[in-house]
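Dear support,

Our group has been running a series of protein-ligand predictions, and this particular one with thymidine-5'-diphosphate is the one our PI (initials K.S.) wants archived with full inputs and outputs. We had some confusion internally about which version of the output was final, so please treat the block below as the authoritative record. The input we submitted was:
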Amino acid sequence: MASVKTKTVWFCKECGNESPKWMGCCPSCGEWNTMVEETVATGRKNLHTASDVPGSGRKPMLLKDIDSSVEQRISLNNAEVDRILGGGLVEGSLILIGGEPGIGKSTLSLQIPLHCPHLKTLYVTGEESARQVKLRAARIGGDDSGCMIYSETLMENIIAQARRIMPDLMVVDSVQTMFSQTVESSPGSVTQIKETAAMLLRFAKETGVPVILIGHITKEGSIAGPKVLEHIVDVVLQFEGENRGTYRLLRSIKNRFGSTSELAVFEMTGKGLREVANPSEMLIPMHEDGLSGVAVSAMLDGMRPFLIEVQSLVSTAAYGTPQRSATGFDVRRLNMLLAVLEKRAGFKLSVKDVFLNMAGGLKVNDPACDLAVISAVLSSNFDLAIPSDVCFAGEVGLSGEVRPVAQTDRRIMEAARLGFRKIYVSSFTSLDSLAGQDIKDMEIVKVADVPSLCRSLFR
Ligand code: TYD
Ligand code: MG
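Confirmed final output from the archive:
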């Protein structure tokens, strides 16, 4: 065997870029102060991709000769997770679940085996003791007969046990706690994370065992710091949501076996994560008609339409500079919409404090929410309520015009399904695709600009 030497290199914590010397600014991603020193072994072949696996003896093939019929999907008895994976787990795939601490990554990945007792699962925990996992399992409930817990952090041992047991599914919690003997640096470092992921990928591709890998998110919001992990794995799922709120969104960011515009919604309960098949039902008003400052937006997240309540409070500014604050919505966009109201519709909002809140602790960045935001602000400003069966979908431009938004037909159908009777959309919206749909109870009001919206709403 070639002698193993070590050398010192610098890695960027953000993008994984390697450099022989320290630099203040990473030349690859442009981030400052992200270079960290690590020792790596040289003279040893690094196997990072599935095609590097030795002994596979593969030869180039004609595309038409490749058999595409055998893609086995394993159902996880969880409609939401199955859906965002593109119809179940693919054999031999490596799935990364990312999210901030405490968001529910461990809960979800333990809940899957507990709800699938027919799958032999190896749950490797490097963060919690086996006893802690047991307590969590007791909380979640379900059938634990197929689930094996293995408390270990050394990758060589984990792979050896996995090869011996040959489970149907393996979970590794978390990539930051695992380490391999072949790498000198400490667990959680860029080289260790890369090596751990590469070892698991090799295992998954060679044996066909699907592996779920959990990764923490850095405060900058990228999974496990180095973007390099996202390149290695097949699927990246990201957990989002307010820690204080009970709703959790699981978004697919990358999926080699399905669409990336999928979104799953869960509610954190005392017994684990509950699938929410109808997110709109939690996000729309539960109060009586007659409250001012409330408007419902027919929004779209990824491919999923849902309706969300936008709440606004407009009050006289107590101090010289009016306050503008928004939860779940971009404050700069709110400021822009207020400026549009001021300039194009003559509302004197500059002497008012404006507060905006999206229901359920969700973060919204669909421009179609503009129309509901403007309506909620106007409703609070005039103290005139908008009827609770009215909703909105439209983007507002700088000159106060209401612009059409993508997939208005799907938003309208979702609103109709939930019993809304009236929706405000842009007058430039084409509704051809709605022909033949059962929405006869729905009145579609087309507005061209903010003044006409205002006239139509608060006549
Ligand atoms: P956890 O899965 O440990 O988060 P992560 O692995 O992403 O760090 O989730 C922990 C939070 O969820 C914790 O604050 C407790 C809460 N929780 C419940 O509310 N109900 C439950 O049934 C479980 C298991 C956890
Ligand atoms: Mg955890």
